[in-house]
Amino acid sequence: MTTTTVTGARTSTDDYATLRTTAGAYRITAPLVRITGDERIALLDQFLAKSGEFVDPDTVREALALNTDGSPFAVLLHFEIGDEAWLLPRTPVTEDQLTGYLAALDIPEGVTVETAPEGWGATAFEGPNAWSAAARFVDFDISGLTLHGVTEASVAEAPAALAHLARVGTTGEYGYLLLSNEPDAAFAAVLAAVGELGGAEVGPEGLARVQAEAGLGGYATGFAGLAVDEADLAWMVDWSRIGDFRGSENLVRPTTGSARLTVLAAPALSRFAAGVKVSAGGRAVGTVLAQAPSANPEEELVLALLDAPFWAPGLELSAPDDQDAERPLRTVTLPRVIARSLTTRIS
């Protein structure tokens, strides 16, 4: 039997529909990091798996940070804003973990690193109509803010606030992120803006389901102890820089024979526990790692580590559910749902 999380009068299914049809807002609870100093890129290059040498001003990119053993530590957003760099974790990490990770680096002279700088916070809003809400915070045509662009923003409810608007998201729909030193006012302003569009604040389960359908299920679940290749993160590594950043000497280049994180579809109301075996014709070929929240009534999505070549799309597999009954699973292509934003024009 599936369960649905209720936040106030809303359910995770409501939140899912909001993100898919209009715009949903949510606070970012991950710790921000501010890095200042002329040699800040040299610091970032010590641990980010892609070089910052050619990163443009006023842009944001996703970057992978590794542990010393070569395992994934976190996927981070790296913002270049004026003469500052900002980092924001996309995958689960605590402030203490992030502080300890950064403290182990060789900080160049003149560079300052602040974890959770006082007063700063972030709000995200995503959905096919999110661009219309974003227009409220800039004084130019919002279509001019391209994907991965960052611009100065204003919050009418806090005229003296510093704010930056980035076009970046996690769902495959239009996505924006508002950084501000008046985070409560910024969040209230975003809620008002999405509310005018029929949107609302959304909870973590509806959001996690849309992310899983976009191929970003790890944003909610973390890495589940997988290696870079197993977690399907090899594309985030600059393999020509091996030996030049933390953990790179322990990386293993991906091969077609590796086990890999895979998304599978199951009939609605199916529930699977982490750790159960996935089978093909009675042969064990993988392990369930997690199940995405049941916010889409059409089907369930399961994240599993599958042996090669069983991570290929379109294969019929099976696993025992929480009642120990064998249930069908099918490997699928991603994104699983065609984003409405693909046919919704910014105007």
Please render the helix and strand layout as text.
Elements: E1 6-7, E2 10-11, H1 12-21, E3 24-28, E4 33-36, H2 40-44, E5 59-66, E6 72-81, E7 84-89, H3 95-103, E8 112-115, E9 121-126, H4 130-134, E10 150-152, E11 163-166, E12 175-180, H5 183-195, E13 200-201, H6 204-213, H7 218-221, E14 260-267, E15 277-280, E16 283-291, E17 299-306, E18 316-320, E19 326-331
Parallel strand pairs: 3-13
Antiparallel strand pairs: 1-2, 3-9, 4-7, 4-8, 5-6, 6-7, 9-12, 10-11, 11-12, 14-17, 14-19, 15-16, 16-17, 18-19
Helix pairs in contact: 1-6
* CATH fold field value of the largest domain: Gyrase A, domain 2
Class by alpha and beta content: alpha+beta
Helix content: 10-25%
End-to-end distance, in Å? 43 Å
Q: Which band does the percent of strand residues land in?
A: 25-35%
Number of strands: 19
In terms of per-residue confidence, which ranges show pLDDT below 50 for 5 or more consecutive residues? Answer: 1-7
What characteristic shape results from the CA principal axes?
A: globular
The largest pleated sheet is described as: 6 strands, mixed
Features:
Gyrase A, domain 2; alpha+beta
Description:
The structure is a single chain. This protein has 347 residues and is of the alpha+beta class. The chain folds into 2 domains: 200 residues, Probable tRNA modification gtpase trme, domain 1 (Gyrase A, domain 2), CATH 3.30.1360.120; 112 residues, Aminomethyltransferase beta-barrel domains (Elongation Factor Tu (Ef-tu), domain 3), CATH 2.40.30.110. Helix content is 16%, strand content 29%. It contains 7 helices and 19 strands. Helix 1 crosses helix 6. The N terminus is likely disordered.
